[in-house]
Amino acid sequence: MRGYFFIIAAAAQWAMIGPFARLAFQEGVPPMEVAFWRALLTWFMFAIHATIRGETRLKREDIGFVIVFGLSGVSLFYGAYQMAVKQGGAALAAVLLYTAPAWVTVLARIFFREKITLVKLMSLVLTLVGVAAISRAGQAGDGQSISLSALLFGLVSGFCYSLYYIFGRHFSGRYSSPNLFLYLLPIGILGLLPWTTFTHKSPTAWMALIFLALVSTYGANFCYYASLKYLEASRASILATLEPVITVIVAYFWWQESQSAISLIGCALILTAVVMVVAEKKTGNS
């Protein structure tokens, strides 16, 4: 039960990224500045955590990987996701983020020569059909037509999210999460800085930014890895798909983000594809 508690808590905390980002936008903070402060404030927390645990090493041969991962997994990922929330709504951004398993299937084939099984192929088709349904639905969360840029930023964030699995295979067993983020985040912050315009922030805006860092990034990460002490990684991954579901619910009641029937079908297809891929992995490992 502890494992289930931790993974559901992680999903719920991740799910609040979009809604609280919208709160920051409403207070006049641009998307790239939200991404910048999310990364910087989270870095302070991971730095304290890593220092207390004495986990601050970095091997010389990993420096290049860390730089590439920091720019793609922090700079581009954080920035693209905030832009997706801004232009398409929190619910749409959260669903497109979960195209990541489809990207993982393709990238794993290229870099690790993993076989594309029938289930993986079916999941890819479902994902593509789901994205197409969302893009053709004609309604975004705020009642405006879905723009090409909103769809593009959402897909880019999903691609960048998939890199956490690819790079994770390289760093697995080498570094703890606080140790790795101690070096990833500063690189990501530097990558975001040229695109960031700083504005005056109200107390509400600071509250939203601190929440994004403390709860939706650091707290979610802590709960996710805590869940892995009690649950299989594949089972935890399935439960983590609660994130976009929770986001859609919260965005509907908080920001009145409505979804058309076609869009909801697209969301369901993408989530079905995610569960299929993870379930196949679990069956293959058992």
Largest beta-sheet characterization: none
Uncertain segments:
138-143
Q: What is the strand tally?
A: 0
Question: From N to C, what is the helix and strand string?
Answer: HHHHHHHHHHHHH
| Broad structural category | mainly alpha
Distance between the termini: 21 Å
Rg on CA atoms, Å: 18 Å
Globally, the shape reads globular
Relative strand content = under 5%
Would you kindly provide a written description of the structure presented here, covering whatever features stand out?
The chain is mainly α and 286 residues long. It has helices at 2-15, 17-26, 31-53, 63-88, 90-97, 100-112, 118-136, 148-171, 177-192, 203-227, 233-240, 242-255, 261-285. Helix 2 (17-26) packs antiparallel against helix 5.
Can I get a quick summary?
This protein has 286 residues and is mainly α. The chain has helices at residues 2-15, 17-26, 31-53, 63-88, 90-97, 100-112, 118-136, 148-171, 177-192, 203-227, 233-240, 242-255, 261-285.
